[in-house]
Design brief:
The complex is a heterodimer of chains A (396) and B (365). Chain A is α+β, with helices and mostly antiparallel strands and 396 residues long. Helices cover 42% and strands 15% of the residues of chain A. In chain B, helix 1 runs parallel beside helix 4 (71-83), helix 7 (217-252) packs antiparallel against helix 8 (264-292) and helix 8 packs antiparallel against helix 9 (298-322). Chain B has 365 residues and is of the alpha+beta class. The chains are: A alpha+beta (396), B alpha+beta (365). The complex binds flavin-adenine dinucleotide (FAD). The site of flavin-adenine dinucleotide has 21 residues of chain A, from strand 1, strand 3, helix 10 and helix 11.
Chain lengths: 396, 365
């Protein structure tokens, strides 16, 4: 890695010097909780600045606005952003799910049209997979796309659409073959959100914040070149999208998608919190718990490193990528749940309270941790995937 | 920030491949069960093959008849041994090798490289894991030392030619390098892992030359580090082994008209064990990397031991439960792994013990 030592130093200096000024409003924790214009514009400008400096999409092709550099350099940038805890970049769905998908299977025209504006945050992307009646069971999708000449007419509703209020495009899974069941008959679209007949309605989250919408389609007419791949290939393309979303495949543009409180912040919190008149970090039970989390966190860091060594992954090559979301999302949820308890009676405070630790960020972070244990496929569904596809156990 | 380095050499890759095949062929569970009933707990012919493969000398410098590799390579071959419940004197001998090397006591290394059986005797009746809490003593008598005390849980004591026993000399911990025969001094112990052979060793009345005592504290650290690393390697292999046994049963047994593996309370537990296996292997090869590079590996080793021994103990426990009534029988292989897991959990410190040590190392006092 020493070949990149100079680059690492350059990146560290750039983020130190260019970090945006602390805003006078509370920033959301991740791309899923962007709820006000103010928050959105601040984060969008920040993404644009990083891209202009050449630190986003470094490994994407030059011709579409990327850097044409080794992935290792983008990895360095991502790690540095996390280390310096700079604000996150908001166009996660474009950068890390839709973008790599378009680069992998899109037509040259699609790449030309979408990729650069994903990087610059000119075009924000959202995802229309889940429906009010079908979430985990994605194959039950009922939203219809009916062919009409050189167009498709969309009808139905999607829900939990993160960034739905700000998005210019949506990756959409819809049924093109009337009467078809399950996996067959589904198709995949890149949909302009400003199409007449598409409407979004913000939904308030458990924290009181906003960030996702219900998205209604009422005879919304989109040109037929919005179809990605062929009719009937929707399921296959949706599954591929999920491998990017869950981090099971590489090719993401990079950046960080959240400003997370981590295990080291929790250790620091334990130094400040009190138990029996002493710092909580001196309490034997708290220490045992903290060490458990440190071991687990280190285990996942090491597992990421081991994943790059074929000789140590050959028996079950999918074990590490397919378990990654399950491992890290559940770790974070339990860590933050524990971190509340560390605060003693003050754990009961909430955002906005003058005496809440760090403005109630810890409480908010615990609640928001469910975004990863539910969104993108729940823990229960991830456990099924690991058991069935990695261990070869039977389906339910 | 802790290092997250893992290196895995081409040599390790080849060793792993050879060892995976060797252990699978030489140690089917039928052989494991047959050896459980025998006196020594291992097959001398298999042991001779292992020596002939050069494994006993992996970590011994070339000038003493070994191949000059290190502990990382040793751990690599131990992982598949754990998976197939092998119980040869390989691990106990390799722990002794590390202590001898660190203590600068090279004379016996050529014999060990050839397959002489060696072991360590560092525990006593009270079962304290603290390697410095030693009651056994050495006292000077001219140019000799006279030993006194009883060591326990000495693996393969019945066939060992070389034993490193911890004693106190003038209050300070030291390792007495003993050469057999130990007739009359070794007494068989009944232990939870019936694939293993364990003995108590009565030191009282033994006399050794002063030169046979290692007083360098580095030898204790090397002994502890090797014991932890190889225990983690055995456990990581064991988790994979018991997961295979469990998954196989879940794929074949039917209840209520469905394969029991289709019930989520069983299959999600298996997914959790897989997650534990992945983390354990990562900790293992990271700790092996640091040990192999002679870097301070204490944090890495204790983390690895805490993770792998807890995961293995839980995987063995779930394996029994998920086999139903059959799981409660002697014939079900789940118990073999559970016994192995508990042996490993409680040798050289259980998970809670290592977490307490880690708390002091990582969080301050
Ligand atoms: C913060 C957030 C952001 C999101 N953003 C988006 C987005 O941008 N675009 C989008 O399309 N979707 C988004 N989602 C939706 C998300 O993908 C779904 O919520 C998720 O897949 C679960 O679907 P559901 O809500 O219908 O729950 P259900 O499927 O109804 O599940 C309810 C409960 O039943 C369990 N369950 C369901 N099936 C099984 C089974 N077979 N075995 C065991 N347990 C089962 C689940 O684990 C869950 O606990 C987001 C969700 C959240 C929380």
């Amino acid at each position: 890695m020493s070949e990149f030592a100079e680059f690492r130093a350059e990146v560290a200096a750039w983020f130190r010097d260019n970090r945006p000024p602390e805003p006078d409003f509370l920033l959301p924790e991740s791309f899923m909780e962007v709820g006000t214009e103010q928050q959105f514009e601040y984060l969008r400008a920040w993404q644009r600045k990083i891209w202009e400096a050449g630190y986003l999409g470094m490994a994407w092709p030059k011709e579409y606005g990327g850097g044409g550099q080794p992935q290792a350099m983008q990895d360095i940038v991502n790690a540095e952003m996390a280390r310096q805890k700079v604000p996150f970049v908001p166009n996660t769905i474009g950068l890390n799910w839709a973008g790599p998908l378009i680069l992998a299977i899109g037509t040259p025209a699609e790449k030309q049209r979408y990729i650069k504006n994903i990087l610059s945050a000119e075009d924000i992307w959202c995802q229309g997979f889940s429906e009010p009646d079908n979430g985990s069971d994605l194959a039950a999708t009922t939203t219809r796309a009916t062919r009409d000449g050189d167009a498709y007419i969309l009808n139905g509703a999607k829900i939990w659409t993160s960034l739905g209020s700000y998005a210019k495009y949506m990756i959409l899974l819809a049924r093109t073959e009337p009467g078809s069941k399950r996996y067959a008959g589904l198709s995949y679209f890149l949909v302009p959100m400003h199409t007449p007949g598409i409407e979004t309605q913000p939904i308030r989250k458990l924290t009181g914040e906003y960030g996702f919408t219900q998205t209604f389609f009422r005879d919304a007419r989109i040109p037929d070149d919005c179809l990605m791949g062929k009719e009937g290939e929707g399921w296959k393309i949706a599954m591929m999208t999920l491998t990017f979303e869950r981090g099971a495949s590489g090719g993401q543009a990079g950046g960080i998608a959240r400003q997370a409180l981590n295990v080291h912040d929790t250790v620091d919190l334990a130094r400040l919190a009190r138990r029996d008149g002493r710092p909580a970090i001196q309490d034997p039970l708290m220490r045992d718990q903290l060490v458990r989390f440190l071991i687990e966190d280190q285990g996942d860091r090491l597992t990421a490193a081991r994943g790059a060594i074929p000789g140590l992954t050959s028996e079950r090559p999918h074990a590490i990528p397919l378990s990654q979301k399950l491992r890290t999302s559940e770790h974070r949820r339990r860590l933050l749940q524990f971190a509340l308890g560390l605060q003693g009676a003050n754990a009961a405070r909430w955002m906005g309270d003058a005496n809440a630790r760090e403005g109630g960020k810890w409480q908010r972070a615990y609640f928001n941790s469910f975004s990863s244990t539910i969104g993108g496929g729940t823990t229960q569904i991830q456990s099924n995937i690991v058991a069935e596809r990695v261990l070869g156990l039977p389906k339910d | 920030m802790l290092s997250n380095r893992i290196s895995f050499s081409g040599e390790q890759g080849m060793l792993l491949e050879t060892a995976v095949g060797f252990c699978r062929e030489r140690s089917p569970v039928s052989a494991v069960r047959a050896l459980m009933g025998g006196a020594d707990g291992f097959d001398p012919a298999v042991w001779a093959e292992m020596a002939a493969l050069g494994w006993c000398g992996i970590a011994i410098p070339e000038r003493f008849g070994g191949s000059g590799l290190g502990l990382a390579e040793v751990a690599t071959v131990v992982e598949p041994m754990g998976r197939h419940l092998m119980a040869t004197p390989f691990v106990s001998g390799q722990i002794a090798v590390q202590a001898l090397l660190a203590g600068g006591h090279m004379a016996l290394l050529p014999r060990i490289a050839q397959g002489a059986i060696a072991t360590t005797a560092v525990f006593e009746r009270d079962g304290d894991w603290d390697l410095a809490a030693i009651e056994a003593t050495a006292t000077r008598h001219g140019d000799h030392l006279r030993l006194e005390g009883v060591k326990t849980l000495v693996e393969h004591g019945g066939v060992a030619e070389i034993v490193l026993a911890s004693v106190r000399l003038d209050g300070a911990p030291a390792l007495a390098v003993l050469e057999g025969p130990f007739a009359g001094r070794m007494r068989a112990e009944a232990v939870i892992d019936e694939t293993r052979r364990s003995f108590s060793l009565d030191l009282t009345g033994l006399e050794i030359p002063t030169a046979s005592l290692i007083t360098d504290p580095a030898a204790f650290i090397a002994l502890r580090d090797a014991a932890l690393l190889l225990s983690v390697a055995e456990a990581a292999g064991g988790i994979a082994g018991v997961l295979d046994v469990t998954v196989d049963y879940l794929n074949n047994r039917t209840a209520f008209g469905r394969k029991i593996g289709s019930y989520q309370s069983l299959k999600h537990a298996c997914a959790d064990i897989l997650v534990g296996l992945e983390r354990s292997r990562s900790h293992l090869y990271h700790a092996a990397t640091l040990c192999g590079a002679n870097e301070d590996a204490e944090v890495a080793l204790r983390m690895a031991k805490a993770e792998a021994s807890d995961v293995f103990a839980n995987a063995g426990d779930r394996a029994v439960q998920f086999h139903g009534g059959f799981g409660f029988t002697w014939d079900c292989d789940a118990q073999l792994y559970l016994r192995r897991a508990l042996w490993l959990q409680y040798s050289f410190g259980d998970a809670a013990h290592h977490r307490r040590k880690l708390a002091d190392l990582l969080l301050g006092d």
